[in-house]
Design goal:
The strands form three sheets. The protein has a seven-stranded mixed β-sheet with strand order 2-8-7-6-5-3-4, with helices on both faces. The chain is globular, with a radius of gyration of 21 Å. Helix content is 39%, strand content 15%. Helix 3 runs parallel beside helix 4. The protein starts with a strand and ends with a helix. It has twelve helices and 13 strands. With 383 residues, it is α/β, with parallel strands linked by helices.
Length: 383
């Protein structure tokens, strides 16, 4: 296998326990959760319960039923945005949002349903929480915060932003797609009301998994309707969570794999994962600083970053570099706009994109060395 450095897109490789859990559910369980009282259906119920409990432990959620399973962060963010906002509402967001937040908000804005304000950032993506306070209005109904940029890696001051929002009783939606599993998250300590996460990145689960934590202080409208396996005689959806938002057949194999991934993260420890990935991030930035023809974007301090480093070289376009790294050296990185045009607009790279390196728990210093050696060799070839 080559060197995989695209964990911000999806983590790879997965722990063996994840593969075993998916295979076990598919071969030995098979039944749908919430759809039967026979043994296999009850085992499926148990998988859902265990996964919810593990996530509740990871995020310090006191009531696991308030964690809703979805197909990923994108569905979770859509549920939060379309389920909370009403015509006439005002939203504040950061200037580093992923399209999973940016496009739903812009869709509502174009329809004339909401007004929105975007906080200004420093060139490295850092944000002063007070700049959010200045945007809050009487009709502000939501503050949407990207926990860490998937391009610059910049970690937002979530705790401070949430404290300012609470002064106005405004709920905070936290997009934790890039941080769940690689940075500590305590919803009570951070003060967020809605937490969207994906399962296939730093939680190390399968693709097509994720969820949304819904705090007691917010009430969402469902955005999907259908069977829940409970209170089936009702024409409307049940009021009880998680049933109200989990319609249709659950992704049993995926959730079993997600539970195993979260179990791995809990056993190894988020703090330990964060420390190791921060060391790799700092080491890569130190090595790249030795190149006079490389521009690195984002904060200079690794402590202010998620394990993401984006950069450009003067002698090749990002997509050329990414192809050559894979073709000649077996190094897998991501080139382009990374579904985050607002971040590239801030960086001044909207016209060309950038090359992104992102670490996972299976990477080590040798991977960084191989990348640096490849860049040095390719610079000679390209120039």
């Amino acid at each position: 296998m080559g060197v995989y450095l695209d964990n911000a897109a999806t983590s790879f490789p997965k722990p063996e326990s994840v593969h075993e859990a998916v295979d076990w559910f598919s071969r030995e369980v098979g039944a749908s959760s919430g759809r039967g009282a026979y043994r296999s259906a009850l085992r499926a119920d148990g998988v859902m319960f265990e996964a919810r409990a593990a996530l509740a432990r990871l995020f310090s959620v006191s009531d696991p039923s308030r964690i809703i399973f979805t197909s990923g962060a994108t569905e979770s963010l859509n549920l939060a945005i379309f389920g909370l906002l009403s015509p006439g509402d005002h939203v504040v967001c950061t200037g580093l949002e992923h399209n999973a937040v940016w496009r739903p908000l812009k869709a509502l804005h174009r329809r004339g349903h909401i007004d929105m304000s975007v906080a200004d950032h420093n060139p490295d993506g850092t944000l002063c929480a007070k700049s959010v306070r200045s945007l809050l209005r009487e009709d502000t109904r939501m503050v949407a915060v990207n926990h860490a940029s998937n391009v610059l890696g910049t970690i937002m001051p979530v705790r401070e932003i949430a404290a300012l929002a609470r002064e106005r009783d405004v709920p905070v939606l936290l997009d934790a797609a890039q941080t769940a599993g690689c940075l500590p998250i305590d919803v009570r300590e951070l003060g967020v009301s809605l937490l969207a996460f994906t399962g296939h990145k730093s939680l190390l689960g399968p693709q097509g998994t994720g969820g949304l934590y819904i705090g007691e202080e917010v009430s969402l409208r469902p955005v999907r309707y259908g069977g829940t396996g409970s209170e089936s005689a009702r024409e409307d959806l049940p009021d009880v969570l998680p049933d109200r938002f989990e319609v249709g057949t659950a992704n049993g194999p995926g959730i079993a794999g997600l539970a195993a991934g979260v179990g791995y993260v809990l056993e190894r420890g988020v703090d330990e994962i964060a420390r190791e990935e921060s060391r790799l991030t700092e080491y890569l930035m130190q090595r790249l600083a030795a190149f006079d023809d490389v521009q690195v974007y984002g904060p200079s301090e690794s402590a202010l970053r998620a394990p993401v480093v984006s950069f450009n070289v003067s002698w090749a376009r990002p997509e050329e570099l990414a192809f050559a790294l894979d073709d000649a050296h077996g190094i897998m990185v991501r080139a382009g706009l990374h579904c985050a045009p607002t971040s590239h607009r801030l960086m001044g790279t909207l016209d060309r994109g950038a090359l992104r390196v992102s670490f996972g728990p299976c990477n080590d210093r040798e991977d960084v060395e191989r990348l640096i050696d490849a860049l040095e060799e390719m610079r000679e070839e390209f120039t």
